[in-house]
Amino acid sequence: MTYIEQIAPSLLAGAWMSIKIFLWTLIASIPLGVLVSLGLLSKFKPLRAILKFYVWVMRGTPLLLQLIFVFYGLPIIGIIFQRYDAALCAFIMNYTAYFAEIFRGGFQAIPEGQFESAKVLRLTKWQTLMHIVIPQVIKIVIPSIGNEVVNLVKDTSLVYVIGLGDLLRAGNVATARDVTLVPLVLVGVIYLAMTGVASYALRKVEQHYSKWR
Amino acid sequence: MLELKNITKKFGERTILDNLNLEIPDGQILAIVGPSGAGKTTLLRCLSGLETPEQGSFLLNGQPFDPAAPANAEQIIGVVFQDYQLFPNLTVLQNITLAPKLVLKQKEKAAEKQAERLLQQLDLAGKEQLYPYQLSGGQQQRVAIVRALAMEPQVLCYDEPTSALDPALREKVGQIILSLKNEKMTQVIVTHDMDFAKQTADKVFTVNALDALGGDSV
């Protein structure tokens, strides 16, 4: 017990780093994902082509590679990030691409009649989007978004590669130093708690949207 | 008086509406009857601004108007779609008051009062807080009618209003259309239901399959 008390501060500090990356990635990449998905559906071909390429690259290469590239690669062309900023940048770009694909599917699932009905009622495009389309899209995409959110919790462990002290790294350091698996068991428990909270929150959102069909 | 003058609409090579002329006096009901694919729905879509005809003009009381006028413009044509297209994420009351509040800038209280009055008139009192999926087909259609009426249109159009209804409901929607006529609402009904058209309309305009919909109605 005293051993756990000893290592708890470093594990919690690592967990806090993981949570920060998790939250900022989510807060930035969901709205960005909506915007990119609208771009993917736009009638302007060059924009569509650029965004398709972006999504293809982001989904087609490992996030680990993207992290390394942003932190070690971009300085070559003069773009220098701090470790933490580099991690956020890579995570947001990567998750925006995944969310954009999910939202694109959601938008395409809305019947044309909903847009026409809104148009005949003289609603503007923006009003139609905000009051009618986006609420329906959210309901459609919640399960897929939920998968990505749980993945994101676990993906935060990749930041060790650019030397950030996250939860998994804190556990690894303690295990190597003290030659015991206890820290890693604790790390597993903390990840489970974090994914548990995320899943619970998502279930609440899902319930909120189950009032209508 | 609603007038359609020389309306021509083509899809690619195919002419759907060929120099069509129609006149509907105020407060009258015109039924457009014909088989599927004859261009009835295309006509309704042009009238409501969802399609733009290649040629022709629309006049209301002698004044030309653009059915595809930009959003937030004054409502001239209201439409009740065949599949109603209620917004599933909004309650009955929200479905009805959304556009009056956002477009006509009605105050929330005023919009709700008007909605409640119309709901009462169409036997839907007490359904305000339900979502569309909790309503029967006939009730959904009546909500769609109320939603269109709440925008205070000059002309109300129906696309196949009887296609999904059993005989009792068919009679009911007929009664609603006639009661709106008593309130001087000009109405256009697109249908393949000849009996319904004859029972309800002041004038029936018949179109044939294969021919482009054209010519003069009067």
UniProtKB/TrEMBL annotation, chain B:
Keyword check for Coiled coil: yes
UniProt entry keywords in alphabetical sequence: ATP-binding, Coiled coil, Nucleotide-binding, Transport
Residue ranges that the Swiss-Prot or TrEMBL entry lists as coiled coil: 101-128
Source organism, top-level taxon: Bacteria
Domain ABC transporter: 2-218
Transmembrane segments: none
GO MF terms, alphabetically ordered: ATP binding; ATP hydrolysis activity
Keyword flag Protein transport: no
InterPro entries: AAA+_ATPase (IPR003593), ABC_SmlMolc_Importer (IPR050093), ABC_transporter-like_ATP-bd (IPR003439), ABC_transporter-like_CS (IPR017871), P-loop_NTPase (IPR027417)
UniProt cross-references to Gene3D superfamilies, sorted A to Z: P-loop containing nucleotide triphosphate hydrolases
PANTHER family for the chain: AMINO ACID ABC TRANSPORTER, ATP-BINDING PROTEIN-RELATED (PTHR42781:SF9), SPERMIDINE/PUTRESCINE IMPORT ATP-BINDING PROTEIN POTA (PTHR42781)
Designated name of the protein: Fe(3+)-transporting ATPase
Species for this entry: Ligilactobacillus pobuzihii
